[in-house]
Amino acid sequence: MILVTGGAGFIGSNFVLDWLAQSEETVINLDALTYAGNRANLASLEGDSRHIFVKGSITDFDLVARLLHEHHPRAVINFAAESHVDRSIHGPENFIHTNIVGTFRLLECVRAFWNDLREPDQQDFRFLHVSTDEVYGTLSKEASPFTEVSRYEPNSPYSASKAASDHLVRAWHHTYGLPVLTTNCSNNYGPYHFPEKLIPLMIVNALAGKPLPVYGDGMQIRDWLYVKDHCGAIRRVLEVGKPGEIYNIGGWNEKPNIEIVNTVCKLLDELRPKADGTSYASQITYVADRPGHDRRYAIDAHKIERELGWRPAETFETGIRKTVQWYLDNPEWVVRVQSGAYREWITRQYGE
Ligand code: NAD
Ligand code: DAU
What class of enzyme is it (predicted)? Predict the structure, then answer.
């Protein structure tokens, strides 16, 4: 039995679906179902007794304590977070509450549960904290990719809150001996990605005939990993990672944003050509830059490759094709997750 938090979100739901496709081991899925959590992502698990969904927050000490004592999981995997940088600029408080206070309360519950375990179960137990490359700040063009010993230099309210949570996890290992693992991953893309993030937003806007808003000059670089490869890496770290260690996860796929947007447009031109024969690229619109925008992220994945033998299965070309096809095949999913009020703020902030 494992306890997953945030398992109705983008990466968490992909993780739960993959886990149950490969294992008989039950998953307790604790998710607060914020705007980003969507039970429809888990619809294929309806009636499956290996999936126990609980609506609730990692900040709820009593609930988490009860779940741990009732189900006795051998591991906790913490995906639950506020995850979007633009939202953290718009309103940082939720990020402090969920990402920092939430991680703290979860750690405290897990520590109390772990303390009461028998010695062999204590040794086998794992707390895996899912984090981000954004905690390392921004890289110049010439700089080497982030390693596990790169300095923490978070620049947005989101990345600062994730950095704080990573430090708490580290401290709970060093001070209390809790067997923790931390993963810092680069930008994910794939099915069930909420259309506020670059790739799904571009697909959805393109199909709706709306502008494709590129922040600033579009030359900011992100390092892209297909979400199923991230899930595989987390499973690998959970099974053979060394407690107390950090593992950076990435697929050596650095690309400027404008190249990503052009790739999405080309794929849509091929898979769903516009009636008037023009390219979706004609919808690209340069807008104001994101405040404090990090210029470049890049992950050095040597450690997880060397020590745990992990490698991604998808190239960017195969992963992005699958992703665009998934959005073409699932228009009703998109309609259900779109929220009006937030898009109004985005329009005011960045223009049409
Ligand atoms: P997401 O926003 O799609 O999903 C977050 C999930 O957490 C949602 O289901 C939401 O309902 C749930 N949640 C929020 N607050 C909660 C709370 N208090 N208690 C319980 N559940 C709560 O995020 P994502 O993109 O799937 O990211 C998952 C994790 O991976 C986050 O910790 C994020 O920082 C990290 N991460 C994301 C990426 C990426 O590219 N998306 C890359 C690296 C790391
Ligand atoms: O690096 C890992 C991080 O990747 C995760 O920790 C975050 O949870 C996840 O949201 C993601 O953060 P980014 O800020 O990199 O992702 P986003 O999709 O918001 O933006 C990707 C890049 O595209 C970034 O440089 C900003 C730019 N962008 C984004 C949007 C939404 C645009 O140019 N236009 C847009 O409309």
Answer: lyase
Active site (annotated) includes residue 116: no
For residue 79, report the distance from its CA to the centre of ligand 1, in Å: 5
Instruction: Kindly tell me if the per-residue pLDDT of 193 is higher than 90.
Output: yes
What phi, psi does 72 have (nearest 5°)?
50, 55
Binding-site residues, ligand 1, Cβ < 6 A: 5-6, 8-12, 30-34, 36-37, 57-59, 79-81, 83, 98, 102, 130-132, 162, 185, 187-188, 194
31 catalytic residue (yes or no): no
Supply 259's token pair.
């190249």
pLDDT attached to residue 341:
44
Ligand 2 test: best mutation among 155, 158, 197, most atoms within 8 Å of CB? 197
How far is the C-alpha of 14 from the C-alpha of 52, rounded, in Å? 16
Ligand 1 site-directed mutation target among 58, 60, 76, 83, most atoms within 8 Å of CB? 83
Instruction: Please check the confidence at residue 342 and state whether its pLDDT lies above 90.
Output: no
Q: Span 102-130, mean pLDDT?
A: 98
Quote the CATH superfamily of domain 2-187+226-250+292-314. Answer: NAD(P)-binding Rossmann-like Domain (3.40.50.720)
Answer yes or no: pTM beyond 0.85.
yes
pLDDT at position 337 is 81
Ligand 2 binding pocket (C-beta < 6 A) is 83-85, 132-134, 186-187, 197-198, 201, 213-215, 220, 222, 257, 290, 297
> What are the structural domain ranges in the chain?
2-187+226-250+292-314
- Choosing from 136, 158, 280, 327, the catalytic residue is 158
Band (pLDDT 50/70/90 cuts) for residue 343 is very low
* DSSP summary character for residue 344: H
